[in-house]
Amino acid sequence: MDRQRKNELEQLYEKYAKSLYYFLLKMSGSVHIAEDLVQETFVRATISLSFYKEEDVRAWLFKVARNTYLDEWRKQKRRKTIPFANLFWKDEMLSPYGLPEEDFLTQEVAEDVQTLLKFLPENYRTILYLREYEQFTYLELQEALELSEGQVKILLHRARKRLEEIAKKNGGFQHD
Amino acid sequence: MTEWSQENEKKILRKYRFTLTFRVLRILLICFVIYALYIAGVSIVFNKTRSDLKHAYNSLIVLEWLHPNMKGQYSMGSPAEITPFLTQKFSYPLEKQVGKEKVVVGEMHVEKSILNSNSSLSMDLLSANTSQQFNFNLPEDPVTGKATSSQLNNNVWKALRKLPEGTVAEMAFSISTFKEPIELEKMLAPYDVRIVWMPLYTGEFKSFEPTASDRSSGTISIYDRIGLSGGLKVSDDYSLISQAEEIYNVRDSQRWMLENMEKLLTEKKSYYEGFLGLNHLQERYNYIKKNGFQAYGAVVTGPTRQLMGLQDLEGISNEMLGDVELLNGYNW
Description:
Chain A is an all-alpha fold.
């Protein structure tokens, strides 16, 4: 890779590091894991540059970040089967299936939508986060999640409905 | 702390650069280790099987058949290498028998890849003189049966006369009729010379068209002819090669030649044509089996004074003088 290309990449990473960090923090629920996943996202993005075609850069980076999160989750799941593995890896990350609703019911207050997101499965959580917090267009969502336009709309609808159900169970959203 | 900061950004980018460099180095190291293990494995298998011996032996046979008085030396101890693409590379010295001693005239480089089409033999000769090829004139047109013109070369005898006593040389000549090698050997028996090679008629123009030939001034020369040498034989595992320096026993030389032809014919055509450069082997073999060995000349070596005696022989023509050595004739 030539120096100019390297500099361009680093500028790109500087631009999106913050958004990716918050996205991965929301997905993983851990500051340390989110930091690690951001740098892992950049490494993977650099290595798989040849696969990046004409897609939107932001959508592509979030796609890589999401896959990185899912891979990390699988890795952690495998580790749990190893005896005494917890002695070395202590960070717990949020599951792609979301927190169980029982946990939600025991919480005194659902602080805001961001907290409620934790109780959604990963695909609902991702699409809602990208749409509501990162202001992704439908086209960007298609690219980031590798879905068709119709699938994006259906998934978004279902995610909102599910979030509403969870919120209702807790007596509605709390607004600041 | 969940808030984003400049410090956070710097830390992540620093870790990213380090991880990327580390992974690139790790991949390079893994590639190197895999390459080293592969090369080690290939070399061990190669040294155990020594598959080069078979190719070396076959190249020695073809060398002797195609190049008058040219021999190679190859054995188990000869160095050979194998490349990562499984190409076997080796070389051996080329020698000529001049007088009683062998003279190194160059080197043969052999490259045998998996594909015969990418394999080659190349001769690296020390001087232009030794690359001189002897030409032999067919005594008659094989198709019409009409006798060809004999060209006498008095310059050869003049040159031999001028050479001081004690010199040895190699010399080639053609004869006016096809003769069985054993008859030709008898014909030369009264002269104190060594017969090292005889061009053989193997059905050219009758059974097949030779690749390179020349018809001019009533003579017919075939350039891709094969000839009878002292002969080579080998053990079943190719580890032990026996080589006759000259044609001591014609019947043995003929038998070994046929056995070697049969062995080569079990290989693919691309092997002996593409790699070894031996054309029309099947046709030649069939012709010899059916019609027997027919020689139409010889390459001999000996003291120049003895070679001069051959001038008295009836029916020899197209005489050519090869390499001359000044010293070793004293011990003849």
